[in-house]
Every structure is written in structure tokens, then in C-alpha cells.
Amino acid sequence: MGEPTAAISTDDVAHVARLARIELTSDEIEHYTGHLGRVLEHARELEDLDLDDVPPLAHPYPLRNVFRDDVASSPVDRDEVLSQAPAASGGQFEVPPVLGEEA
Amino acid sequence: MTSAHVIASEVRAGTRRATDVLEEFLGRIETHDGDVHAFNTVSAEQARAAAAAIDASVDEGRDPGPLAGIPVAFKDNLCTRGVATTCSSRMLEGWQPPYDATVVQAMTSAGAVMIGKTNLDEFAMGSSTEHSAFGPTRNPYDLTRVPGGSSGGSAAAVAAGFAPLALGSDTGGSIRQPASLCGIVGIKPTYGRVSRYGLVAFASSFDQIGPFATDVADAALALGVISGHDPADSTSIPAAVPDFAAALARGVEGLRVGVVSELTGSGRNGAANGGPPPGDAAGDMLDGIEADVTERVLEAADALADAGATVGRVSVPAVTYGLTAYYLIAPAEASSNLARYDGTRYGLRVEGADVEEMNRLTRRAGFGDEVKARIMLGTFALSAGYYDAYYGKAQRVRMLTRRDFDAAYADFDVLLSPTSPCVAFRFGERADPMTMYRCDTCTIPSNLSGDPAMSVPFGTGAEDLPVGVQVMAPALGEETMLTVAAALERAAPPLSKPLLAGAAGSARAGS
């Protein structure tokens, strides 16, 4: 597993898995290091391109802010939304403790 | 089987009942979808109520609309109120959206009857539907082969005669490539032509919704219904919707058609009428495009020349780097869009000691292998120290693509290429990620540029499997694109029927 490519290491994958909040086993970290490495190795072909004078394009068309008139419209039904949530109480989404203190 | 526009005109005229039409299609699903697995959900009960309402309108002398009584299948990443919308992911299994996507609203308001929700690669990430958490869809032409993806369920549903129309989404080719592999028509409209409100986001600067149909006229009919500005999607373009049907009858006389050199590599050297490629128009040809496929594209170009178009070859050099740029940008956008699946608001939750552990365990259990890989690839491409080398560079390649297309469209009205480098392949044949990603080589450039593109069946390749020709046009150039597609359809050799008995085969002849 894991070609000797410097494009990405198992430490890098463990790091991005933490950033992306995905729990992985060490075998899975090996697996994704291989997968991501093959893609990133391919991406090295971009190194040959002289792109210094080319500005980046983030979006097909020029984006501008779009505003609507400030009038009330009918929102989605709160109870319908909450009925599809894993846990809800008191008209709100319910989650486990965020800071680890006793609630 | 009749095509969609025939069904609608008969239902509107009162000579055919929407409920009868629906039962015909439900019957075919019942008989054959066990083999094909095009659907995640068949919404028979809701469909029967909707069809009965259409019939009641007709009885009362009211016009149900241009899609009256046409059964339509929606890709399962389009929100349908009260009907499960799963994205073929364990993460959203059973989730019922609290609202309808704008396109769903538009289709049903025009009289269409939702028949079900179709399978896809999980969160639309894939080119074969093999990445669906609920098992793959099989190609109606050969059940041992993939239908393409990610909208493989929608394409297979139309090809198998389960619905005369379907909608899908196209981020890197996810409408056009399955249309090509299943021998039907698929359109990716101009970015912004169709509202994405209610489409579960994958890569927001690429995602676009479009139709599948058995012929160009039906695809144009559906496109007209779903197009138009929507205040609920800030990227939707406030442009008038043309009469797409009128474009079909226009001839191609005088139109300038450019065959993209880089995407027609291994075939004969230059279209017959264009002669050998002149100088720099030769370009660097991409590997991996099957010779049969290239040959069909050149025959399509010849057919357009015979019909009066001016055909030449054109180089669009940046397309050779499109795949690489896309597979950095799209995962980057996906890593952000899919952050919302954290066990709080929708679908799956795996309990943890604190909120962060709940997030990590939920995302571990809810996402499949390919989705995890792309989220992490995108997170990496955006991370400190790598941003400029990967994401930044890819965005500059995106600008190069935009410029190269602009230059090509200065000389040509439309461009031609293969839709897919290959015909439908066998399950498991493209397990290596880069091999799978190369399926999108020809379709990605139009997603990078935001321009419209579509696939039209044009003959067959290896094993008698369908080949699609891609027609590309500049932004908001759908009319010219459809004119050319209709001309190709008239010139195309007839396709053999899919294997399924009594399925879609007669559709082309029936139009």
C-alpha cells in the first residue's frame, strides 16, 4: 500500500480527517493515503504550466450580491423540519454537550 | 411506447387518460426494475393521485399543461416534499424534505406526474452508480454493464421505458455521460439557466440540473419547462426562456461546426470534408478515447456537413488539463458543502460523548468510501500550505479553459466531441479512482466554463453498445445546440432496442 509518493503522507491524511471530522482507523488512513496520492500525483501535471499571468476563475460568471425585497414570505414549516432531525426538543435541534461540562 | 410530447398532446386532447399512461409505466417498472434497479423509490401512491387529478382537470375542461400526464423520474438528490430524498447515501436514508425543488414544482405544475426517485452515485460523486449505498443500477442495454453516472438511475429509467422523461444533475458530466452510455438524449443547460433551489449541493460552481429523454424534441420540451429565473437561486440568470421547440426545425445550413481536436484523438486524421487538420489546430490529443467512439463523432460531423453546415477542426488546448483542475476544485467545494451532514439537522446520527465525537462517528458511518475520499481530497487541497499549489492553480486552469472556449466560439457556433471516451463498461472494470475519473474527460470542460452541452445518440461502438456525440455551445446558446442535435438525430443510424423486452426501443421511430 502507499506508493512512495511525496504528494501526501499518512500524517497528512490523519490531519485532514480530523479537520473534516471523519473518524478513521489506521488501516483506513493507509487506504486513503493511496487513493488521494494517486489523484494528487496526477495533479502534478499542472506544475508544467506557466500560469503566472492567468488570473483564477472561481465561478463561470461574474458573481454579484443578489438582494430580494425585504418582505415576509412563508418559511418552511418548523415542525416539519424538526420531525426529520435526529433529535429535537422545545422547537430546536438537540445535540450532545458542546464543551464537555455537565449540562 | 410513445414519446413524452405525444402522451401530453393525447392527454390534453382527452383521447388518453393520465391514469392509464401511469399504469402502463408502473407495470414496466414492476416487471423490469428488479433487474435494472433504476429507482430508489417508486412513488406509486402519490403518482396515482396526481394522475387522477390531471384526468379530473381534463374532464372539467381545464388544460393541465404542456407535460400533461407524462410520468417523470427525478434523480434522488432533488428535494421532493414528503417523499424520501436520499442522495443514495446512508447519511440521508429516509429523509423527507420539507419543500419541493423548484424544478420539481415546475414539472408537476406543468402536468407531469412524479413516478419515483432514481439511483445515483452517492451525493452524485461517480461515473457508474457503483458508488450508490443502495447497490448499482444496471444498463438496460447490457445488465452486466454500468449505466454511467452519476445520474445512472435517471438514464436507465428512460432507456428501459420506465418513464419517458427524467431529470438529473450534471457537475462533471453526470447527465451527459449516462445518457451516452444508455443510448438516450441528455442536456446540461447553461450554468444558471435552471434553478438549483432544492438540488442537494455537491460542487456549487458546477452543479446544473437538466433533462433526459428518448429524443431531442422531448428533451427540449422538458428544458423549456424547467428553465427560467428563480429568485430562490441567486445564481440563476434573469434571461428570457426561448422557444426551444422552434429551434428543432431550423436547418444547420451556414452553421459553423468545430470538431475538438484534443478530444477526437485516435480516429482518422481530420473530418472528410475538413481535410487534414491545419497546423496548430491539431492539438495534443488525449489518450484513452476509443477509436470507434471517435469514428462516430467524425461521421456525425460528416452528416452535419452533408446537411449544409461548415465543418472544421478546432483546438481547445486547455481541455487536456480540465480533468485535473476539476478533481481539485469539485472536491474542495464538496468538502465545504458536505460539512452540513454532521448528525444535527438531517438523517443519520451516531451518538457520541460530545458534539464533536458525534460528528466524527456520524460521518464515519454515513458516508461511503468515495465521498470520504473526495471530502478529504478537497480539505487537503484547501489546507494551509497547499492551497496555492492545488486549488489556486486549478482555478487558473479554469480561466484558461474559459479563454480557450471563447476563442473557439469566435470561429465556430457549436463544437463536437465524444460525450464519453468509451461505451458502457463492466462493473468493477474501473475500480481505480483515476481510471474512473477519466470517464469525465470530454464532459468536464463545459462544467468548467459553465456553457451548455448535450449528448445525442449516434450509432454504436464496441459490442454494439450506444455511442453519444456531445454538442457544445456558448453560454445561453441552447437553441443552436438543439438545432444541431436535432439534425444529428435525423442523420443517426437507428439504435437497436435495449435487451429488456418491450422497453424503449420503438421510441425513436415513434417521434
What would you call the shape of chain B? globular
CATH superfamily grouping of the domain at 4-248 and 499-510 in chain B? Amidase signature (AS) domain
Label the CATH architecture of the domain at 4-248 and 499-510 in chain B: Alpha-Beta Complex
Can you tell me the overall shape of chain A? flat
Helix-strand category of chain B: alpha/beta
Sheet with most strands: strand arrangement of chain A: 1-2
Question: What percent strand of chain B?
Answer: 5-15%
Count of runs of 4 or more consecutive helical residues of chain A: 3
Listing every helix as H and every strand as E from the N terminus to the C terminus, the arrangement of chain B reads: HHEHEHEHEHEEHHEHEHHHHEHHEEHH
Strand line-up in the sheet with most strands of chain B: 1-3-2-4-6-5-10-11-9-7-8
Poorly predicted regions of chain B: 266-282, 501-511
Description of the structure:
The complex is a heterodimer of chains A (103) and B (511). Chain A is mainly alpha-helical. Chain A has a domain at 10-47: Histone, subunit A (Orthogonal Bundle), CATH 1.10.20. Chain A is 33% helix and 4% strand. Chain A is built from three helices and two strands, in the order H-H-H-E-E. Chain A has helices at residues 10-19, 26-43, 78-83; strands at 88-89, 92-93. In chain A, helix 1 (10-19) packs across helix 2 (26-43). Chain A is flat and about 55 Å long. Chain A starts with 9 loop residues before the first helix and ends in a 10-residue tail after the last strand. In chain A, 18% of the residues are buried. Chain B is an alpha/beta fold and 511 residues long. Chain B has a domain at 4-248 and 499-510: Amidase signature (AS) domain (Amidase signature (AS) enzymes, Alpha-Beta Complex). In chain B, 39% of the residues lie in helices and 12% in strands. Chain B has helices spanning 4-13, 18-36, 44-59, 102-109, 152-159, 176-181, 216-226, 244-249, 291-306, 319-337, 355-366, 369-382, 388-411, 433-437, 444-449, 478-491, 507-510, and strands spanning 39-42, 71-75, 113-118, 165-170, 185-188, 208-213, 256-260, 310-314, 414-418, 453-460, 466-472. An eleven-stranded mixed β-sheet of chain B has the order 1-3-2-4-6-5-10-11-9-7-8, with helices on both faces. In chain B, strand 2, helix 4 and strand 3 form a beta-alpha-beta unit. In chain B, helix 10 (319-337) crosses helix 13 (388-411). The longest helix of chain B has 24 residues, at 388-411. Chain B is globular. Mean pLDDT of chain B is 93; it is low at 266-282 and 501-511. The chains are: A mainly alpha (103), B alpha/beta (511). At the A-B interface, helix 1 and helix 2 of A face helix 10, helix 11, helix 12, helix 13 and helix 14 of B.
